[in-house]
Design goal:
Layout: H1 3-12, E1 17-22, E2 27-31, H2 42-45, H3 50-53, H4 63-70, E3 74-82, E4 88-100, E5 103-113, H5 115-137, H6 139-142, H7 158-170, E6 177-180, H8 187-196, E7 206-210, H9 216-224, E8 225-226, E9 237-238, H10 240-243, E10 248-252, H11 259-271, E11 273-274, E12 283-284, E13 288-293, H12 297-302, H13 308-314, E14 317-320, H14 331-346, E15 352-353, H15 355-363, H16 369-383, E16 388-389, H17 391-407
Parallel strand pairs: 6-13, 6-14, 7-10, 10-13, 15-16
Antiparallel strand pairs: 1-2, 1-5, 3-4, 4-5, 8-9, 11-12
Length: 408
C-alpha cells in the first residue's frame, strides 16, 4: 500500500471533518465528520470552490480565504453558517496553510460539529436568564448571591490578617482583581467577601463561573450572550457580563479560557462593552471583574496559557492566598470552627481533638489545603459518636492519603 492511500485511509477514519484545498480554495480532498454536517458527499465536493459548498461564506468570512491571504493558521475558530443543503450549522475549525518552497500551495482544515453544543448553549442561557431574573425579583430576601464576608475567613496568622486588611482596602474599588491560590485555599470565599464589603455592589448581582467547567465553545455564548439568528434557533439572550451588570463577575481558572476569549475579556475590562455572539452592536456594562488562578499567574504567562496583556490588566490588584502549610498557626482555630459547624449540621457532640491528633494536623503538609482539613473532619465526625477525636479515628484517612501520595 502506498503512503498516499494509507494517509487517505487514516483521514477517512477520523471522527472530525477534513477539507484540503489548493491555493485558490478549490477542494481537493473532502471528508465529512460522523454527523454529516456539511450536507455534501466527497465526490460532489471535490473540484468545487469552498464558497460554492458553503454558500453564505464570503472571501472575508471564509477561514480558507483568510489563511491563504494572510499566510497564517487560524486555530479553533467558531463558525456559524449554512451548509450545502441550506441547514444552519455551527463548527469549530482549525485551518492551516500548506507551504512548498516558501509558497502557499493549499490549506487543510479540521472541523468538528458544534450544532448540538450551540443548541445546548441556548438552553443554558435561557435557564440562566430565568434564574437571575428570579434572584433579582427576590433581591431583598435572597441577597446578591454572595453569602460570605471577611468574618468567614478563619485565622489570625499574620499572612491571613494582612490579606484581609488589603482585601478590605480595595473592596470599594472598580479595578479588576487577580487572585492566586492553590486548590482549596478559599479563593471564592475571599472574592465573595470583597463583593459584600463593596458599598456600591453588595446588593447587586454576584455571579461566579468556573472557566474550566465548560468547553470554550459553550463558554463564549454563556459569557457574552447570543443574538437572535446567530445559530439555529438562537434568541436574544444576555450573557454573564450583562447579567452581572452593576455587580461582580468572578471568573475562576481564567487561564482555562482560550486565547480568543481572553482577548474578548480584555476588551470588556478596557472598554466596558460587550458584544453578543452574532451581534453587530456592543452594549455598555458596569461590572467588576475578579479572576483567579490556581497556578502562579506569571508562570501561566510564560507557558502561554494566559495572555500577557490580560495578565497586566487583571493584575492591577493582586491578592495571594497562602497555602495551609504556610499558616500552621491557624490550624487549631480552623479545627475548632469546623468541629462546631459539623456538630450543628451532623448532630454530634465533639468538643476537642487529642494532643496527638493536633500535633499530626500541625505537621501534615495539607496538599488540599483548608478544603482537605474541612472534608477530613466532616468524614471523621460522620463515623464517630464521642467527645474527643483520637489518633485511632484518623489513622485510616492518613494511611489512605499516604498510599495515594506514594502512587503519585
Amino acid at each position: 500500500m502506498n503512503y498516499k492511500r494509507l494517509l487517505e485511509l487514516i483521514l477517512l477514519n477520523l471522527d472530525e471533518g477534513i477539507i484540503v484545498t489548493d491555493a485558490n480554495a478549490n477542494i481537493t480532498f473532502y471528508k465529512e465528520p460522523a454527523t454529516n454536517i456539511g450536507g455534501i458527499d466527497s465526490h460532489t465536493a471535490i473540484g468545487k470552490n469552498i464558497l460554492d459548498v458553503f454558500p453564505d461564506l464570503t472571501p472575508e468570512t471564509s477561514t480558507f480565504y483568510n489563511v491563504i491571504k494572510n499566510r497564517k493558521p487560524i486555530i479553533e475558530h467558531i463558525q456559524h453558517y449554512t451548509n450545502y443543503q441550506g441547514r444552519k450549522v455551527s463548527t469549530v475549525t482549525s485551518t492551516i496553510p500548506i507551504f512548498e518552497n516558501g509558497e502557499i500551495v493549499g490549506c487543510f482544515e479540521v472541523f468538528k460539529d458544534l450544532t448540538q453544543v450551540a443548541d445546548l448553549s441556548e438552553k443554558i442561557l435561557h435557564l440562566q436568564k430565568q434564574l437571575y431574573k428570579s434572584n433579582t425579583d427576590k433581591k431583598e430576601s435572597s441577597g446578591s448571591g454572595a453569602k460570605y464576608t471577611f468574618d468567614n475567613i478563619i485565622g489570625s496568622s499574620s499572612a491571613i490578617t494582612e490579606l484581609k486588611e488589603k482585601a478590605r482596602r480595595i473592596a470599594g474599588s472598580n479595578s479588576p482583581v487577580l487572585v492566586y491560590g492553590e486548590t482549596g485555599t478559599g479563593k471564592e470565599l475571599l472574592v465573595q467577601a470583597i463583593h459584600n464589603a463593596d458599598p456600591k455592589r453588595r446588593n447587586r448581582p454576584f455571579i461566579a463561573q468556573n472557566c474550566a467547567a465548560l468547553p470554550f465553545t459553550l463558554l463564549e455564548s454563556i459569557l457574552f450572550g447570543t443574538a437572535a439568528g446567530s445559530f439555529t434557533g438562537a434568541k436574544d439572550n444576555p450573557g454573564l457580563f450583562e447579567l452581572a451588570h452593576g455587580g461582580t463577575l468572578y471568573l475562576d481558572e481564567v487561564n482555562s479560557l482560550n486565547i480568543e476569549l481572553q482577548a474578548k475579556l480584555l476588551r470588556v475590562i478596557q472598554d466596558g462593552v460587550v458584544r453578543r455572539v452574532g451581534a453587530a452592536k456592543t452594549k455598555d456594562v458596569d461590572v467588576r471583574i475578579i479572576a483567579s488562578a490556581n497556578e502562579p499567574p506569571a508562570e501561566l504567562v510564560k507557558k502561554k496559557l494566559l495572555r500577557e496583556d490580560l495578565y497586566y490588566r487583571l493584575n492591577v490588584i493582586y491578592l495571594e492566598l497562602p497555602p495551609l502549610r504556610e499558616r500552621r498557626g491557624d490550624i487549631s482555630m480552623l479545627v475548632r470552627y469546623f468541629i462546631n459547624r459539623n456538630n450543628e449540621h451532623l448532630g454530634r457532640r465533639v468538643t476537642v481533638v487529642s494532643p496527638e491528633v493536633m500535633r499530626l494536623f500541625e505537621e501534615y503538609s495539607w496538599p488540599g489545603n483548608v478544603r482537605e482539613l474541612e472534608h477530613l473532619l466532616e468524614s471523621i465526625m460522620n463515623l464517630i459518636d464521642k467527645k474527643t477525636i483520637e489518633l485511632s479515628d484518623i489513622q485510616y484517612f492518613f494511611d489512605k492519603r499516604q498510599k495515594l501520595a506514594a502512587m503519585d
